[in-house]
Amino acid sequence: MRIRADILRHYQVIHTWTGIIAGLVLFIGFYAGSLTMFKPQIQQWATPPTQVLAAIEPTKLDLLVKQALAEYQSAQQGFVINLTDNASPMYWYEQGGGRGIRLDDALRHASLSSEDTLISTTSSSNELGSLIDQLHRTAGIVGKVGHEDLGVLILGIAAVLYFLALVSGLIFLLPTLVKSLFALRSNKGSNRFWLDSHNLLGIFSYPFHLIIAWTVVVFAFHDLFYGGLSLIYGDKPLFEPRQSSEVVYQVEDLSPISSYLTKATEMAKDYQVTKLAFSDLNSNRPSLAIEVVSDNQMMRGGYSDFIYMNPYNFEVQFSTINDSEDGAYGPIVTSFFGLHFGNYAGITGRWLYFVMGLMGAMLFYSGNLLWLEKRRVKSPTQTKSSRFMAALTVGVCLGSMLGVAITLLSTKWLYLLSSNINSHYLWSYYVIFFAAIAYSFLRGAAISAIHNLYALALACLLIPISSLLTHYISVSDWHQQSMPVSAIDWVAIIFGIGFYVMARKTRQRALHGEGHSIWAIAPVKHQREQAQELNDQTGIKA
Prior knowledge:
This protein is of the alpha+beta class. The protein has helices at about 5-35, 40-45, 60-70, 130-140, 150-175, 175-180, 190-205, 205-220, 220-235, 255-265, 330-340, 345-375, 385-415, 420-445, 445-470, 485-510, 525-540; strands at about 80, 90-95, 105-110, 120-125, 145, 150, 270-280, 285-295, 305-310, 315-320.
């Protein structure tokens, strides 16, 4: 396929600069996003087993609710019934609650003993999985613009640039697509190998990247889209407001738990009910959110669909489950969520999205490397702009991963300091993240890349060791954990080995590779020889 050279140059410029501008924040979004595919598992792994009370038979849930409501006034406003094994069968907020992330929420858990008497315990909520998800959504950028996170809007702008980079990159690659698609030419230098790897990752995951780019734009700017629809709808509300009843309901009038399960099963035949969340029970606006999951459906939430109803009269207020009455609008909206979250193919789909998320992060990292290599000059000292971008790339990308790894490593030990450890998570991440950036600018990209990769390898390999130690030396009651080394620990081992190999190869490249590179660490003698050679070539005496 022939495309004029000037057109190709224009698309190459667009691809390069949109990728460079957006690449660093998108790297964090993709890397953290791959971890959020297993957000519930991370949350469960990070929570001490003593904070989860034993499950009970579904037939005993009504007895549990009755005893809890009679003994605890705070439960009468709202509570959650959990039908899985990864949380207590009943819990409610003693402090906090509602939507969003709060670092100081306090929970009370309730269950029944073998004699069917009420047992309860209190704990802070562990938000590790939610904080990683927030990192995915905002790239760690704090602040608000109105009611929206500043980081979400920045990632939305980055996604627009990302979409332009995808389109321009494909057009630029079209003339040589067939010939160079499977080529990984390591024998033609590191620059050619990185270029081939970058192109291969981009082409094979192209549909995935288009989906992510488009859905991020929709999520970030949905308020603007809804505002634009006001030109069509005028003053008519897009969504029917929730109506308040003239009746003030009382918690004593709640129906049996089995009745809600029956209603949910009728509405969602292919789903499994996992949670019932009651709220505002002693008011004229009570609500019940029924969480349902399915491995064969696109779901509106990250991990589930929801049915909202009045818990007293069973009137359905809203449902995210597709219905024929929704017309085309319902399936389209659901597809935006389901395609972004990867929740439509069970655990297999989550693992695929996990891998593709990591490949996406690698795509942005390799793009920055290519930009740096293209601007390499035949001199021991590279340009100031190249040194700056190299240090920033290493600091942001490796610093973000190291911050998350250190946070995961510290979680089981932080309970020795405090039961409310969410603020410690933030300190762990941001201190490591900014320290890595500072270190990269202080020591340069080559040295800091090697040291950060070794630190990443060590942190990841210490995670399973930490799980074993806290299990066997009874630290914060982790000894009650049934399996001390979980899937998360095994994945950490794989990552640790991978980072160690990368560190070794980076070190080898720095010491023995091309000397005229931002990634080179040449001995002092070699540097002097290079300087002398350069002086001889230019006719300048040292």
